[in-house]
Amino acid sequence: MALWGSRWRKSLEEVVEDFTYSLYFDKRLWKVDLLGTLAHVVMLNKIGIISQEELAVLKDEIKNLYLEISNNPDLIRDSEDIHTFVEESLTKRIGDIGKKIHTGRSRNDQVILDLRLYLREETCDIAELLINLRKVLLELSEKFISTPMPGYTHLQQAQPVTLSHYFLAYDAMFSRDLQRLEDIYKRVDVLPLGSGALAGSTIPLDREYTAELLNFSKISDNSMDAVSDRDFVLEFLFFSALTYNHLSRLAEEIILWATKEFSFVKLPEEYSTGSSMMPQKRNPDVAELTRGKCGKLIGNLVNMFTIMKGLPLSYNRDLQEDKPSLFSSIDELKIALRVWIGFLPKIEFDTERMYKLSSEDFLFATDIAEYLVLKGVPFREAHKIVGEVVRFCEENNKKFRELSLEEWRGFSELFDRDIFDLLNPESSLNLKKTYGSPNPVINKDVIKKREEELRNIIDRWHKLKSSLPDLMRLLDKV
Ligand code: ARG
Predict the structure, then answer these.
(1) 307 CA to middle of ligand 1, Å?
(2) Is residue 6 predicted with pLDDT exceeding 80?
(3) What CATH code is assigned to 14-100?
(4) Where are the domains positioned within the chain?
(5) Which residues are known catalytic residues?
(6) Phi/psi zone of residue 376: left (φ > 0), alpha (ψ -120 to 50 degrees), beta?
């Protein structure tokens, strides 16, 4: 029986029930629905709608239902949605008292309360995973601080960098993702309950008190916006699509690096698969699936935007469709982060081959042009001179190192014997002066700063997580 059934003479067509039913996906909100219900009835007691005795009965039954579902999640069935299930289950157990639960509340403000409670918990878990991934990346960047490898633009060998610099580049992306998540949290952390269906209530609900019980930093100040706002869902979907995009780019590096042509990495057996036909194959399926699944997270964001773009105020049933997208992005992101936290430290890097390829002469062409600049040649002129050296080498099938000093001087009088000291990746890296470059000395400093930043982030998320309300603790407190 639906919660709104009294005015209806006919029951819903079965196909309509199937069409509107959401319990199969919103049942994961059961814990937060019970938690929100507890806070609501405690507040109703404070303002005199529910007596002390009634509250005691409600608390007992909320606790019992919580324990029973914890033991047997299959108990959740037969209702239209999770809110109906919780209210019906309580009412079945305690009769008339149960009928007071929904005072001053609508499923419209209830569902969005649930989603906010749920997302606050999930963001804490995701932050922890991202922090662990960053720890792995920072450890790897320390380990390979002086390991040269070719850096690419246009996927063409460009200049020597270090393997550390690669990891620090990805760490920079995940650092921004964590900043974004912290920012989103602020907008999730708002209590919508008390907004009713769309216009609040004539009952003097104590919203500040409910917010205090559930540890929300703010309460919403417009009831129509409160029941129809899904901006924080969109923001979260954008955050997860972008974070996943970063994983997907990292995956692409690994896929390339694992090819015979690059041969930069050997994949761990636990994280790769064979071919059913070709016995020699070791395939980077984990990385490929990361790249492939990324499409789903981008799709979820587009899906949500499409749901929202034409919605008039306030609540519309379309909004029920926010949850499959949100849950899918949460689940996909969490499992992918777990996979990469385990995968990265197990990859074997062929640092000798990376070194060899980063010693290719032409990778030092820019350093040579800058050598001339430091001797007073305008850069455009220096670029032209080195371009001519490159052409000469190509035409005569020679390498930079094979040219004699006289040959160098034929291009510019300013070339000296020290030009030969430039033709190795160590010099190229160690001579880099700019902050943010792959110079190992500079990167050591960057790593130190990132580690410090990470410690602060860990502290902040730890505080947020420990401030989250817990049903059992709240039962003891009130
Ligand atoms: N299952 C609904 C949702 O997810 C709950 C709110 C239903 N409200 C309503 N007026 N029918 O959005």
Answers:
(1) 15
(2) no
(3) 1.10.275.10
(4) 14-100, 107-356+447-477, 360-423
(5) 154, 275
(6) left
Dist. CA 342 → ligand 1 center (Å): 39
Tens-place pLDDT, residues 236-261: 999 999 999 999 999 999 999 999 99
Using DSSP, state whether 161 is helix, strand or coil. Answer: strand
Find the mean pLDDT for residues 162-180: 98
Question: How many of the other CB atoms lie within 10 Å of CB of 356?
Answer: 14
> Per-residue pLDDT for 346 more than 90?
yes
**Residues 114 and 29: beta-carbon distance below 8 Å:** yes
CATH architecture assignment, domain 107-356+447-477: Up-down Bundle (1.20)
Atom nearest to 22 CA in ligand 1:
1
The answer to whether the beta carbons of residues 362 and 394 sit under 8 Å apart is: no
Q: How many Å apart are CA 159 and CA 194, to the nearest integer?
A: 60
pLDDT value at 1 more than 70: no
* pLDDT(279) > 80: no
Whether domain 360-423 has CATH 3.20.10.10: no
Q: Identify the three-state secondary structure at position 242.
A: helix
Binding site membership of 319 for ligand 1 (Cβ less than 6 Å): yes
Computed over every residue of the chain, the mean pLDDT equals 96
Q: What is the mean pLDDT of residues 263-270?
A: 95
CA angle 319, 323, 326 (to 5 degrees): 120
Which ligand 1 atom sits closest to the C-alpha of 197? 10
Distance 256 CA to ligand 1 centre (A): 47
Pocket test of ligand 1: the residue of 320, 322, 323, 325 to mutate, having most ligand atoms within 8 Å of its CB, is 320
pLDDT in tens, 210-225: 999 999 999 999 999 9
State percent of the chain over pLDDT 90: 94
What's the gap between Cα 215 and its chain centre?
24
CA-closest candidate to residue 149, choices 353, 358, 352, 347? 358
Beta strands 265-266; 218-219: pairing state: unpaired
pLDDT for 79 equals: 94
- What CA–CA distance (Å, rounded) separates 163 from 358? 11
The yes-or-no verdict on residue 281 having pLDDT over 80 is: no
